Amino acid sequence: xxxxxxxxxxxxxxxxxxxxxxxxxxxxxxxxxxxxxxxxxxxxxxxxxxxxxxxxxxxxxxxxxxxxxxxxxxxxxxxxxxxxxxxxxxxxxxxxxxxxxxxxxxxxxxxxxxxxxxxxxxxxxxxxxxxxxxxxxxxxxxxxxxxxxxxxxxxxxxxxxxxxxxxxxxxxxxxxxxxxxxxxxx
Length: 186
Hints:
By secondary structure, the protein is an all-alpha fold. The protein has nine helices and no strands.
């Protein structure tokens, strides 16, 4: 998969470098957490010069946000196997909430990173938000109410911040999202 970088278009070689950097970032996060993550140590793990890493990523927050964006973009949208719009919305919310449930260090890092003010993070946050909004709108159907979409976005964002703060597991958050979405839409 050759996802376009958020900072520039990529050649095949550049795309490979970005892939190596994002994979290395996940490895460093697993071992050292977000506090121990630096663009420099990710570059070293990926076998590239720090200056090269900084041509693609402006900060560790940008790097982590890119990891999440790539995972979201690569995740399939739940199939519309049901005519029940609540079930379709729940499938979208559950899919996104559980995307990193098995990687708590990455999940917590994503929460921290996406709250950053780095312009590259802001750009990715917008792309992520638009992707999730489109998934929710599709799940709601052609007559989706913009207020319902916004309420679901707020529900989702609040739930992930809660999980990122360690109040509940991502699995429990996914269950709470299901209950809350049903209450909201019924």
